Amino acid sequence: MVRWRSWVLLFVVSAVACSTSAPSQPAVAPAPATPQTTPPPAAPVPPATRVPPAVETSCAVDADCVVTTDELVDAAPRTHACCPGCTTHAVTLSWRTRFRAWCESNPAPMCPPIGCAMQQMRAVCVAGQCTAKPVR
Fold first, then answer.
1. Rg of the chain in Å (alpha carbons)
2. What tens digit of pLDDT does each residue of 39-62 get?
3. Strand 65-70 relative to strand 84-92: parallel, antiparallel, unpaired?
4. Helix (H) or strand (E) holding 69
5. What angle do CA 18, 9, 5 make, to 5 degrees?
6. pLDDT greater than 60 at residue 126
7. DSSP strand pairing (121-126 vs 84-92)
8. Is 109 within 8 Å of 83 (Cβ atoms)?
9. Per-residue DSSP letters for 98-127?
10. Which of 57, 115, 47, 54 is nearest to 80 (CA)?
11. DSSP class per residue in 44-91
12. Cα-flanking dihedrals φ and ψ of residue 85, to 5°?
């Protein structure tokens, strides 16, 4: 038991002696800290305003009209133009083509999930305006 204590005492004395050596170089005072100016955090950038083409419904014959269930305007945060929706819209075929091209170049930031039962509709031209009517 005495030998074991001797070894522990020798180890502790050696460890203390090795860790308390004199500094090899004189201490140098650190340079004074220069105040750092950090720029203020940037304000959040609002999402860009998306303006789809104005809806066109003028027609001459039924073939000028089509139905779409895409959202036609942004109604953030609920939904965005170009997202599938739960409302049927009757529009001109030429407008829908331009709208789809606009949607390709201006995608919606996000589209919410939808779950709605919708009656099947068809587009007809009534008094010069595209109108959605139920399919019979």
1. 38
2. 666 655 555 678 999 999 999 999
3. antiparallel
4. strand 65-70
5. 155
6. yes
7. unpaired
8. no
9. HHHHHHHHS--S-----------EEEEEET
10. 47
11. PPPPPP--PPPP--B-SSGGGEEEEEE--S-BTTTB-TTSEEEEEEEE
12. -135, -170
The yes-or-no verdict on residue 35 having pLDDT over 80 is no
Taking the C-alpha atoms of residue 15 and residue 9, their distance in angstroms, rounded to an integer, is 10
Task: Quote the distance between the C-alpha of residue 12 and its chain's center.
Answer: 61
Residue 114 confidence (pLDDT)? 85
Q: Over the stretch 64-121, which tens digit does the pLDDT of each residue have? A: 999 999 999 988 788 899 999 999 999 999 999 999 999 999 999 999 888 888 999 9
How far apart are the C-alpha atoms of 80 and 53, rounded to whole Å? 14
Whether the model pTM is above 0.70: no
Distance CA 92, CA 18 (A): 90
Phi, psi of 113 (to 5 degrees): -70, 145
Rounded CA-CA distance 1/91 in Å is 99
